[in-house]
Amino acid sequence: MATRAPYLKSRYSGYHHRQVPQEDAELTHVGPDTPAGEYFRRFWQPVCYSDDLKDLPLRLRILGEDLVAFRDGTGEVGVLELHCPHRGTSLEFGLVGDKGIRCCYHGWLFGCDGTILETPGEPAESTLKERLFHGAYPVKEAFGLVFAYMGPPEEMPAFPVYDSFVRPGYRVVPGQKYIYPCNYLQILENTMDAIHTSFLHTIVSGAVFTDEFGVLPELEFMETPVGIIYIATRRVGDNIWSRSVENVLPNLQQVAPVWETGQKEIGFSGPMMSRWVVPLDDTSSMYIELRHVSETAGIETPGWWVDRSKMLAGQMPPDTYEEAQRRPQDFEAQVSQRPIAVHGMEHLGTTDRGITMLRGQIRKGIRDVKAGQDPVGLMRDDVGPIPTYCNNTVVRIPPAATEEADKKLMRETGRRLARGYIEAPPLLAAAE
Ligand code: FES
Ligand SMILES: [Fe+2]
Q1: Which of 148, 292, 352, 391 has the highest Cβ tally under 10 A?
Q2: Quick check: pTM over 0.90?
Q3: Along the chain (432 residues), what's the average pLDDT of each consecutive run of 10 residues?
Q4: Domains with residue ranges and CATH for the chain
Q5: Which of 82, 89, 91, 101 has most ligand 1 atoms within 8 Å of its beta carbon, as the pocket-test mutant?
Q6: Whose CA is nearest to atom 1 of ligand 1?
């Protein structure tokens, strides 16, 4: 099958588009032994919140694998293969005990590391449990999240802590997790899609964020040491508002506060949210959020954001299909790109440069792993807080003489600010 659909150059030429090319498998397939699957398996991935693990086991699907998570009586968390190694019963029906989880069928007991602690039906002299292990993945709990490392044991990297997570004057709190029935990549690409905030979120669905988002920004994109940012600059009176949203490789988005108006000068704001897009399989993905809440006098985090039960607008579908058609938002826009977006049918424009750059970064990471090298973003050593770059910054710079000159001034200002904070990361300086 062709990888690109023909470029239609005449009217009524739908017939030439009757075939839909295949998706880009290298970038989008995440199951075991796929190139992107191996790439993602090199990084610690959040799989659930710590407080999801109560008395019952939690069934998970991550990177095309069926798993079970639980917290036993000692407080330890296990992430194990879902199916019992005896005869395959799902451990989601298991009994979480003082130590480990016990299969409901014949009572085999498994420790968090996959050790088989008991095989009750077997004769006392059986050595089966000394020889066999159940599949288990290393787990790390941090910031109210449970992370698992699903890669080759000998390749386990350090656990990365980003500077925004340990920022003085702020705390990070768990937010919401929600599932989109589509491939991870098109969701991640939305991070580099600065234009949609002024169309989808403003013109189509009314001002979801502040009115100032309705102005089409001047756009730049810049690679950072750990990923990519967009730099969207807007003119607000005598101010230039520069907004950067970030993707930290491979799949952590950081979003700058959406309540910004650009009316008042502010320094580097940092993110309102850090959110992973975890591939569950090729056609479903989980958002899992950490929210940043200010504890600094004079810097208010809006109440709706502190309230964990409230969601960022537009992230999930409305109650009815008609409502979705009348006020489509992020969910409709991204999920309807097909279960796996087909790049061979796209026609990318100038504002999509960030999308191309992000795909390039991920493809490079995938190929680096394939070649036996560490991909960008993977930390071998415990290096302390890792700098990140998401922010709103508002500076007073009155407009240039003409509209064209002003646009240039905005772009230059955005780039200058970004170069400055990439060189001297403000949150890192604050954390040290
Ligand atoms: S199937 Fe799990 S103990 Fe038999
Ligand atoms: Fe959006």
Answers
A1: 391
A2: yes
A3: 86 95 97 98 98 98 98 98 98 97 98 98 94 98 98 97 96 97 97 87 77 86 97 96 97 96 96 98 98 91 94 89 94 97 95 96 98 96 94 98 97 98 92 71
A4: 45-148 (2.102.10.10), 163-431 (3.90.380)
A5: 89
A6: 87
